[in-house]
Amino acid sequence: MKSAGNSDSTPTPGGTPAKSMAAAEPRWAVIFKILNDFMSAFELPSVSLIGQENGTPYKILISTLISLRTKDEVTLTASRRLFEKADTPVRMMKLSTEEIEELIYPCGFFRVKAGNILKISERILEEYGGEVPRTAEELLAFPGVGLKTANLVLSLGFAIPAICVDTHVHRIANRFGWIETSKPDDSVGALEKVLPREHWIEINELLVLYGQQICTPRNPRCSECELSPDCRKVGVSRSR
Predict the structure, then answer these.
(1) pTM of the model
(2) Which has the least CB within 10 A, 111, 138, 174, 218?
(3) Domain of residue 71, CATH code
(4) Which residues are catalytic?
(5) Count of domains in the chain?
């Protein structure tokens, strides 16, 4: 999973549904059926795969931190390598910063992330009895954790409905005309107003994949997109 920074930004108020949403309610059932059918032919994003591999909330938190500004394949390899050595806060604290750096290299900002992993592990042990906290407010107090990371931990780690917005979710939600926002964190609140709660957890992995394969940042593959009739193509000047 790829992100816009080595620590995603803290939540900010703002963001609204697109102004014309009331005139044309999205066909959510159709949209998510198409997205799920499309996804069935591909491998899940890296953090989702970690979640399937006996992914505890702690492992999801740490792998999400590793994923920031890092390609999916690097995230998956680095996370698995680290978890072979330490998959709990107790075991992680037995490693040095240098050992963690070596294990997660070549992920982006690996030195900063190694330090944050140790700081977070220590706080989980000292403040939460070794258990990852279950609220966004508590998660956001950890170094390197922004709203994207916090909501992914809540949704994948605890099955708590939370919308994880990365660059793909932000771009596609605005391109389709579901919302009208300028920042990913603003898109969280805007999507909460229009997206049925039953889709809050799955939207991230579905749109990450769709954004990588079809609804790309530049020259999206509109001719191949089954969702084209439901898309307002906001900001799209050229497509394939």
Answers:
(1) 0.86
(2) 218
(3) 1.10.340.30
(4) 148, 166
(5) 2
